[in-house]
Each structure stands twice: as structure tokens, then as C-alpha cells.
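Re: duplicated header lines in exported C-alpha cells

Our pipeline writes sequence and C-alpha cells for each protein into one text file. With two proteins the header for the second block appears twice in some exports. Here is an export where it did not happen, for reference. First protein block:
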Amino acid sequence: MNFDSFSFLMPSQISPGRRSFFFFILVVLATIHVTFYLNGEHHLYVNDYRNYWIAYWKSGLQFKQSAWEWARALREGIWASDYNSLPAALLLPFSLAMGYERHGYILGAALTYLIPVVVLSGKAASLVVRDSVSDARPFYIFAIAAACFVPFWVPTLRGYVDIVGLIPFALAFILVRIAGFGLRIRPGLAILLGLAIWMPFLFRRWYAFSVVAFVLTAPIYCIVRACIDSHVRWTRATRNTTINFAIAGIFSVGACLLAQGGLVKTILQTSYSSIYVAYQRSTFDHFMDLWRSFGGLYLLLAVAGLNFLWKTPSKRVDVSFIAANAILLFVLFTRTQGFGMHHYLPLAFWIYLLMCVGLWSVLLLFSAPFGWKISVVAVASLLILAATFYRSGIGAAMGGAVLPSVVYNNKIGDEVAYRSLALQLDKLVKPDEKWTAFASDVILNRDVLLSVSNELLADRAVDTSHVDLIQMLSVAPFMARYAVVSDPVLTHLPLGTQTVITIPARSILEGKGIGAAYKRVGPIFQITDSVKALVYEKTRPFTRVEVDGMLAEFFARYPEWRAVYGNEIFKLAMTATTKVGDQWGKFEFEPKGLISIHPGETKPTIASFTGMSKKLSLSVAPACPGSDGVDVLLRSDGHDLVHLVVEPGETVTLPTTNPTINYELTVSKRANAWCDLVSVTLAN
């Protein structure tokens, strides 16, 4: 690794040799930390602990098969996805070299993302505190503090790659601090600032809160600094700042619309404060979460950093800008939902800067040699890091109070029991069958079983909806032949916000309602002292009465759902028996009141159901280059009723109005499966 390539991130007063040595030490210590932390972890990773890791692994596989398809899929994800895989894809060298190995994924994130954040954060803090541009001493202390700063490490070691967004975010702060946007018009740096402001959002959508706070405060900061430091007239400073930020804004918004237009459209049409209500907390809980995540020591040093408000006017402006961003970000984010460990990252950057100011203020009280001061900071920082991530009496006693809450490595339940459960599923579920899990907790959900099986169960898995107001109801998990249920039923959000899990799971455990269609198979798996996992097999289709009973429970809680699910098409989907085609196959109810069907690559998608009061209308998606329509066969009692070739964009009517007989609908591709998405709804 050529460490000199990072030299621009460090103060110029540090010699090239020292820069290389410093980066070498960072790489070695990060590698040791990642290795020790992951050693002995149970191979049980859930949800966000797992998602980007699997995207990282699949990205490497796809790149080996076709670099063009890899780039195309990445581009499509960036355009419209809430959580595009770009942060994982940028770790491609590690994925190609180490494949599925989780150690390679976490190490790649630490070396590729966290270390640049450490250096940028150290430089940003040193810009705030130092009185002389020739004084490089603060950088060493602050870089060491950043390298051991717990909030940077927590999400990274847990499998989140969100820290990548702090690289452009910290760069944006440094640009605003040193570029002098209030002094003169600087188009080149303004363009760079615009891109730096947009890029955190490019990596993760939720960085938008920190970007908004920054954009609201940075122009004022630039104007005031120009007036104070260079005695520029405020009218000139305002004009220069306005022009520079207009240039930055044009490039930031333009890049966002060009790269992520689909996502922007979705955001404008979505009320996130409504759908994320399950992730909301009380005001008191927001502050308690903040205290537990950072600990009293970090926060006390950050408060001590406000001491600079009584220093020079320049330092007063710096600290006011940092504090304003921290407060505004906290207010904006908590209006929508509570912070997760990864959401704290931009707030952690601001708190880190204040903490460094406070730390510097404390160090200036002592006349000890600089070498002693850096040694004390290094030892104290390492002790805090060790107490947080490695089991010890200090962490147990002080974590969540004086120090940040402990975040030990992943060891959940009885790993042998989990592996036995995964092996049982692997034996039961045939290649053309599906399984699902009606559980949503770190102890048990679909992702736990996928990871413990080393992804062997992935191709046969169907995910359930997890949060009522985000995913609502999905038909696909009810079509799976096997369902894993926990006893007691496990959820991870406040009571009543995950009834899409609890209602079907309890029905299955009790054998009532839709649960009467299931029977338990295999042994009981005691995955923890208090939690059992059980496997159930769906032995028959649901009846209309059973589906109506389940819907009544949902409608009692969400009356507005009646307009979405209280219709014949949803009930047809829920009572049907399906065989979904391979690779592209699909059979799913859409909330707009239709069933989406797609044939497989080599096998058709087949649905069996009873008749209804109206005929069905079947439409094929509009033509795309090379599309040739689908082959549709409707049978009843072994006889062909309708056999049609339906062209792209064409609509046909199917005679399905006899409620006393069963129908079988088969949708097959013709020469190819291009644009073969079929929509089924009631005929007018």
C-alpha cells in the first residue's frame, strides 16, 4: 500500500516518512482490532449486520461473471434504491480476494473507509484548535482519539458500511473551514464542495438530515468568518458566499438528480415520519440513547469544548458552527425516528470535534512535555476502546454511563441448535419449494438462518414483512411450504408495530385460523434458554374464512387497510396454491389491487385457485426490445379452457366465474422472458 497517496489529508508540516509510518501503524492496529473482535463470533448475522456483507460478496461474484452487468446493476440500484449497494461494491478488491469470508468484509470497511475518516477527522479538529498553521502537534493527538473513537467503530464492526459517508462529509467541513468562500469566488472548490455535500446522500439516504443541517449553517459560517478574520465588508462576504454556494448547490442537486432521480421521486412521495413511527422514541429516550451511545466522558469533554466560546472571535465562530450542526441534526433526525448505531455517525463527527476542543483545553492546563500528553491520550483512548468491545469488568461497570455502552462480538444463543435447525430446513425444503420465518429479532429471523447455513438456504427463502407501516402485508411468505416460528413470538420494535409478524405467528403456534393449514414437523430447537424455534409445514391452501379471520384482526388495528386488502384479488392470492418459476418467477399481490406474475427462465409460474364472481383480466407489460409476450393456459378439472399467446401490451379476459370448481393458470415465457411481467385483476 502506498501510504504517501494519503499525504494530502495530513498537515504539511509532517514529513513524508512520518506520514507513511503513521498510516502503517493505523493499518496494523485496525487489522489487529478487527481480527480479535471477530474471533469466536457466532455465524449468526441479522438484517443490517448482514445485508451489505452479502451485497459485498455478491458484488464480487457478479463482477467475476460480467463487469458490464456488475456496473449496470450498480447503476440501477443507485438510481432508485433506498439502500443502494455502492458502499459494498467499492470494497470489490477485498471481495475478489477474500470472497464470503466476513473478516475480509469488515477489514475492507475499516481500512477503506474508517482510516480515511480518522485522518480527515484529525485534520478537521486540528484546524479548529491550533493557533498556528505550523503547529502539527494537535493532529497526532486528535488522530489517535479518532482512531479509538467508539462511535466510529461500533457500526463498522457490526457490519454497517455507513461510515463511508463521513469521508465526503468531513471533507466538506474542511473545505468550508479553509477555502475562504466568503473572501472570494472559487468555482473549482465550490464544485468540489457541492459534490462533497451530495455524496453522503449517495451512499446512504439518511445522511440527508446532516446535509440539510450543514447547508443551513455553512453559508452563515463562511460570511461571519470572512468578516471576522479578514475584515471583509459583510455585503461582499455575503455576495461571495452566495455565489460559491449557488455553484455548489447547482452541482450537488444536478448530480443527485442525474444519479438518483428515481430515489428523489420516491422521497418526495413518502412521509417517512409516518412509516417509521415504529422506530420513534420519546424525547427522554432520545437523550438517554445519546448518553448510552457516547458515555458521560465523551459528552463531558464535548461540553468542555464550549469553553472556546470565550476565546477569540474566530474560535467562537468555529465552535458555534459545530455546536449548531450537532443540535440541528439531532432535532431534525429525532422528528422522524430514533438514532440507530449507524445513524449516529454524522452526529458523532460533530461531537468528536467538540470533544477534541475540550480535550485540547484540558491538556493546555498541564505543562508536561508533549510526548507525555500524547502517551496519556493514547493509553486512555485504547482503554476506552478495549472496555467497549472486549469483555471486562471496566466495561460492564462503566459502559452506558461513564463510557459508551459495551458492544461485544456476536455470540447469540446455542450455535449448535441454530445449525441443527438450518440443517433440518435444508433437508425438508426441496429445490422448487420455499421457506420463511415469522420472527423478527436478533435471536431469530430469516437472516440468522441464512448466515448460519452459509447461504445454502438463500435460494429457497422468502422474506416476510417486518414492520406494519413500512412493508404492510406480503402474500409470498404465506405461499411458502415451510415456516419457522419462535416460541415466544419474537419482534424487535415496540408492541403493536409488527403485527404482520405476530398475528400469523400466533395463529400457526395455536393452530387456529390460517394456522390450521399448518402442522409442526421435526424436533423443537432450543436456540436460547428462553426461546424455542419450531418448523411448520403448510399442508393445504387457506380457506376464504381463514383469510377473512386474519384480515379482521388487521382491519381492527388498521381500518385503512380494508381498501387495500379487503378485495377478491387479495383473497385469490392468499387462497391460491402456487409454483413460482425459476430465476425470474414471481407471484405477488400488489397494494394497488392486482397480482403480479412473471414466468421463470425454464419453468412456468403456476397458480391454482377457486372461481369467483367476476372474470379475471390478464395484461402483459408494454413491449421492450426483443420481447415476445407470454403463453397463457387456463385449465379446470384436467381440461384446457383457454390457451392463448398474449402479446406485449395486450389484455385478455379469463373465464373464472364458477365458484364450485378449481382453476389452474399457467404463465410461460415464449422465446425469452424479456418484459414478461403479467398483471391480473378483476375484469370490468
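Second protein block, exported in the same file:
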Amino acid sequence: MPTSARAFRPDDPARTQGLDAAGLQALAAAAVAAQDPRNRRGPFRPEKLVTSRTRQAERLSSFYFRGIDAAALIGLTLAIGWMSGAALMTLPFAAVLPLGIALAVSLAGLRIMRLYGFGRGERLDLHLIRVAAAMGLGGLIGSAAAVLTGQSAQLSALLEWGLAATLLTGVLHAVWWGIVNQWRAEGRLTPSVAIVGATKHAERLIADALRRRDINVLGIFDDRLARSPDAVVGVPVLGDLDALIGHRLTPYLDHIVVAVDPSARARVSQITQRLAALPNAVSLVVDQEGEAARDVSLARLAKSPLASIDGARDPDKAAFAKRLQDLIIGGLMLVGLAPLLALIALGIKLDSPGPVFFRQRRHGFNNEEIRVWKFRSMRHEAADATAARQVTADDDRITRFGKFLRKTSLDELPQLFNVIQGEMSLVGPRPHAIGMKTGETESARLVAEYAHRHRMKPGMTGWAAINGSRGPLHSAGDVKRRVQLDIDYIERQSFWLDLWIILVTAPVLLGDRSSVR
């Protein structure tokens, strides 16, 4: 029996017992809704949706895998030197050189052979053979260096190193391979997309995606909803462009694919302009004849499951460097500031009744909803989780100790927990409360590029904060200036810029007497 038929049966006493007329009507309405294709999950929908931020973090695992490999091989090299009866640091340079060359070549071989990609369908045995080849190449070139430098006595040590390195790296890569395939089986590495346009182009793209299974098409949206079907190849049509802009799926989408005939330039231009209100990447799929050509297009859309460690600086490498920066600096700050955090917590408890911390829903990366930690600075009963009323000078909701915390920005320190969890960064656009208003209008509606500030994880401090744009936004001009500063930062972000912002944050904010906080 179909699911919709099971949803409501008037003669089923288990479902209808004890329900009044209103309850029966609600149950019948639910049954009707269940028959609507728009409410179906579709053939791609995983059991558990994974946000694009989480998927990006797991894509960066290739860098962690490579770092662990390097640390393990360096440790192995030092151990073999120690077991040979002499510390490597005390040996002549010529005696150490062959082992160092073997180590460097082996690490380079793992990278050159692209052994951190873990492509879909890659067999473990073939992967391990390539690992052994990389280690063998390192041992071979190290041995050649030993012969050429007159260090033939090191050949036995190099042989021991090569065998041990192959075994150690093989075990590690078997673990990495298992982790990646488990993530892939759970759908945590498969990019999720939404399609704009219930067209023949969308139909071909979905059919190919079903065959390949390397992207998930979560739904279709159409700017001409009245003409669109309820579903395309089983994927439900969920609404028009307005529905997409406010849809709960957007934090889970890696791409929005416009599957509209490119020759309809006016329509494509209008759609892309509307989609600029979202932080998600937008791609225009040009329909191509032939399965092979379409496979190439889909492969570009799906990319590799893990970030590439080869080539020039790219967004994945920048994201990894920024995450490493957050973990190291943020972790040190959390440990170093622990006594101050404890004193602030005590001061809050002594000043007014209520909890020490306040958590507020805010927008994070790709419009993901996160809960930001803060020290409570307002009376507990007057807390404003949606920032519907922005803070003003002499705000009667703020406690005596809270005024000090806000003036010094110490109320923001618990956001270090968000940084360690990966929801925020030390430096980035400041996260705004969901539904925050400027005057009577929601701030996000005042500037077309507002969502662009969500293309990076929000930060505890940022370029806008040290340039005077901090605290409440009282006009559309205020919103526009902050968004522009945030976008400027996103385009210029680097380790040195982040370090500069961190260093000047405290003196700039403490010296700012005009901003209401």
C-alpha cells in the first residue's frame, strides 16, 4: 500500500481514536500533503543532511592526513637513527644526508602520486601499491645518494627505514582510506546542489547524476513556477526563487545550478541577479550533447571528495591555513585567558541573577544557523535573542557589570568556544543575530550584497570592527558600509592581515569611545 494511503484511513481506530473533528481534519490534511510530490525527499536526499561547512571541514582532512604522515615518517627516521647507536643530530652531515633525502623524496612521492585524493571507487590494494612505490622511490634515491657520497655503511639503515616506512605509511593510508569511504557512504563528502529551472536541461543533469551518484540534487526551484511540474525525475520542485532565497536547505547546498537555456540571456541575467542575495556558489550548466561531455561537466561540479594538496594557492588551502590558525591561536588564548574567564563569570553571578552565559542564534557560513556564546550582559528577563531592539546608549536592559563587559568587549570572549568547534573563526565578518533589524526593516533586506558576508565563517573580530563599524546598525548606510568592509576583507584575507587585525583589535576597541556596544 502506498505511504500516502497509509497516512490516513478513517476506519483505522489506532489513528482516529480520541480525535475530535478538528483533529480528524488535521490528520486528513496531513494525508493530502503527503501525496504532494513537493513534500517528497527525492531520490538523492540522505537520511541526515550535512551542512556545507561540515563538508568543507572534512574535505580539508587531506591536509591533516599528509601532516600525520610527515610526522610519523620523521619520528620513524629519528627512531632508526637512535637505534643505530647514535643520535642523528650528532652524526656528520654526509652520514645523515642519505636518510634525509629518502625521507624528503618519499613525502614528495606521496604528494606527486596524488595519494591524498582518495577518489571514488579507488581500490585499497592499488592505493597501497602506489604508497609502496613512493616509499621505494625514496629508499632507492637515498641509497644512490649514500653510494655517491661514500656512505655505503648507511645502506643497511636505509633498507630498514624503507621497509618500516612502507609498513607504517601503508597502515596509515589504510586507515585514511577507511575513514574517507565511511564518510562517502554516509554522504558527508558528496556535494549537494539545488537546480534552478525545471527544464529539459535539469532532467538530463538529474538523470546523469543518478547514474554517477557523485552529487546530490536536493530540490528544484523555478522562476516560472506556474508552468513547472511537481517533480523532475523524482526530484521535487520546492518553489520559486523567493522560496529558494529563504529556504532551510541553503546552508546544506554547495552549489546552486542554473539549468536554464543560456540563449535566454535576459532570463539567465535576472535569475543570477536574484541569486546574488545568497552566499552559495552559483554555476550555469550548459547542456551538452553526449554522455561523455556531460560527465565532464558533472565531474567539475562534484570535484574530488578531498581537497587537493597540489598546485597553486586555492580556497581549500586558504581555508585549511585559516583553520589551523584558529585552532593554534584560539586554543592558546582559551588556556591563557581561563583565569580571566572565571573572574568574569564570578562577577556576573554577583551582579545579577541568571545564567553566566547567553547564547544567541546567528548566521554563520553559508547562512548556517549557529548559536554564539557570550557572557550575559543584560538582565536575564530582558534578554533579546533576535536583536529585534538594538542596543542604545544607557540601555535599561544592561546590567552594571554588563556595561563594563560590553565597553571592553569582554562579553565576546566565550566565542572562543565557537572558534574551537569550527563554527566561527578568530577573524571574519561579525555574525549578526538572525532577524536583526535596522529601524523597522530586517538588516539583510537593506543591501543586495548582504549575504556575501556569509561566504566565510564569521569572526570574533574583523576588518569592519577595527574600522569603526561595530555594534548596532541604525541606517541603511551603516549596513552598506559594514557589508562593503566585510567583502573587502573576504577578498583580501591572508594570514598576515588576520594577525594584524588580532593585534590591533584590543587597542582599537578600547580606544573607541563613540560606538555603542
